[in-house]
Amino acid sequence: MAFYEDAQGRKFNAQMAAVELINVIRPVTAIATFITFAVLALFEHPRARDWVQNGDKQHIEWFTREVRRFYPFGPFLGAKVRKSFTWNGYHFDEGLLVLLDMYGTNRDPAIWGDPDVFRPERFRDWDGSPYNFIPQGGADPAKGHRCPGEGITQEIVEASLDFLVKTIEYDVPAQDLSVPLNKIPTLPESGFIIQHVKKKTPAG
């Protein structure tokens, strides 16, 4: 960021350099968080792990989506009302702080049957709505408050899962894997510690 120059030889000013640096740090942090939750899901839900290990790319895709739905990546997003309006009988005054409940929407029983059960196959019948599955914000990323890097996040977590279940073996020692809901962002208390990592021996 400090040495970047555009086609006219102009460098970033301090504000733009800071913005672009955050735009690198933020998605890397997001992806690392989701990968940690994905490894936790493999450990906590052995049936789903077998389902991924013996399945195809579609199964890994559904598993990754379920990780992003099930685990608390972010609790909410905030915004201020720019212009007063009424929506569904609710009036929103200009300047009002509004919170989008991401975790609650992804765990809403009116949207997701048995929302507290980790079940990747639920995405077989998902309608693709950008308003009911919102782990990284809602709506169209080109027009709404949804992370434009969501697709890349999904693909990198899928690739990480494929590596974790098909390429390596490891042990999970005793540790505190509880996930506090009063921390932003949150992770398992121990992180996720693995040991005795080795390359998986081909079957047969």
Helix content: 25-40%
Largest sheet: 2 strands, antiparallel
Low-pLDDT segments: none
| Average of per-residue pLDDT values | 90
Alpha carbon gyration radius: 20 Å
CATH top level?
A: Mainly Alpha
Looking at the structure, what is the overall shape?
A: globular
Strand order of the largest sheet: 1-4
How far apart, in Å, are the first and last alpha carbons? 51 Å
Order of helices and strands: HHHEEEEHHEE
Would you report the number of β strands?
Answer: 6
Question: Describe it for me?
Answer:
The protein is α+β, with helices and mostly antiparallel strands and 204 residues long. It has one domain (14-199): Orthogonal Bundle (Cytochrome p450), CATH 1.10.630. Helices cover 37% and strands 12% of the residues. The protein contains 5 helices and 6 strands. It has helices at residues 14-44, 46-53, 57-70, 102-106, 150-166; strands at 76-80, 85-87, 90-92, 97-101, 168-171, 195-199. The strands form 3 sheets. Strands 1-4 form a two-stranded antiparallel ribbon. Helix 1 (14-44) packs parallel to helix 5 and helix 3 (57-70) packs across helix 5 (150-166). The relative contact order is 0.15.
Mind sketching the topology for me?
Layout: H1 14-44, H2 46-53, H3 57-70, E1 76-80, E2 85-87, E3 90-92, E4 97-101, H4 102-106, H5 150-166, E5 168-171, E6 195-199
Q: What key attributes describe this structure?
A:
single chain; 5 helices; 204 residues; Cytochrome p450; alpha+beta
Quick gist of this model?
The chain is an alpha+beta fold. It is built from 5 helices and 6 strands.
